[in-house]
């Protein structure tokens, strides 16, 4: 996708050049000056007349009628220099990606140095570009019999820079992996429940594992029975589709120590079970495997970047269906941990499958746990569609996740787990726990429930029910699955440092 050049060195005419213009530097000099000369001062006049502007997010498209090495020039307004953060630049490149896609261009050149500010370094800018292009141009093709236009997709981006070509290339590539890993997660979320069953998800994980050399284990129903995964099995009980507990091991250190456990909720379709969802609430529940998608997307990027860390990914996958064999409210089930659970609501199934996944991860060496799940409507009410809900039993681990989310540009906000929430979750006449203590603050109860299985292991829970999908297009992607938390998880794993013993 990317090639880096230190000099303008084109043998034939290029389709387009992308060049940044900030408020401070809106002088026609340097590269822009050269182009202006070639165009007999037209850039200067367009700027005067306001057709080209340094205003933020303004993208002006100029036709050169063969007078330069580029057929078209896109002048991208960067606004006030001090406001151009890493995150803003990534969005700006997203806009550029979309503009290029709309113009149906296969090849473009980017004058990367024109996007730099005093606080933004070349390698950060390269990462931002590498990430934004695949994210912004992502499309889910779906299953329409006829696609109405012939797709032209961007194939080549030539990056022109005075920076070290190898280093710039490496940063572009890292960003690109972040972007494509996120896109894989988006596609998994966009796939309907009949096209992505637990078995399909296991096959996908198998393919990923053989591509990157992960150790793979798929726990079948019989294995779950032997292990006593009663919570996972209860959710699957009404289904004709076999459940899968997908376990992937990436060992980047000599020893299998300091293992980061990434645990994903992989409900391929959530009907709610006998606590059935209303007809409006059930549509879209194909996305209830968003947490699993984030973990799989993150593992893809980890496979590409090969950090010196140990990662254990555990994905609990099944659908939540109704039939004569399905589990019911009032049922009491026994989880793998031995803790018994009174089922008050079969629609609170995510915490059940995660309970066994977390117990399994702990037993297989996970020293730190991060679970990702489309867990509750409650988090959507509390934080909306842009902010992931985070809950934890460990301040230091949470700090690292939060830092990673800043860097990745993915918003999150913490909700508390206080003692009274634990009391509510433990309040059952017949079992150790109940799976649905009430609707008041229920995102917190869901997390508290999972925390009962994490126990003393440092753990962060990420509720992405509001952020896994979006109904509108945005700078870095289209409506549909967002692939949220792929980039946060990867950044967290890459930067992970052992927690201080307290
Ligand atoms: N998968 C849903 C949560 C969800 C809601 C995801 C909206 C995406 C969008 C989850 O399994 C669920 O049904 N949760 C219940 C919990 C309740 C029964 C305590 C909910 O949020 O209503
Ligand atoms: Zn549910
Ligand atoms: Zn669910």
Strand order of the largest sheet: 7-8-10-9-13-17-14-15
Tell me the overall shape: elongated
- Rounded mean pLDDT score: 95
Could you state the CATH homologous superfamily of the largest domain? Zn peptidases
How much strand content do the residues show? 15-25%
Number of helices: 16
Q: Give the distance, in angstroms, between the N- and C-terminal Cα atoms.
A: 47 Å
Q: Work out the radius of gyration.
A: 25 Å
| CATH C-level of the largest domain | Alpha Beta
Biggest sheet statistics: 8 strands, mixed
What fraction, in percent, of the residue positions are helical?
25-40%
CATH architecture of the largest domain: 3-Layer(aba) Sandwich
Domain count: the total is: 2
| Helix-strand category | alpha/beta
Which stretches are low in confidence, meaning pLDDT under 50 for 5 or more residues running?
none
Instruction: Give the number of DSSP strands.
Output: 19
Question: The CATH topology of the largest domain, please?
Answer: Aminopeptidase
Bound molecules: ligand BES, zinc ion
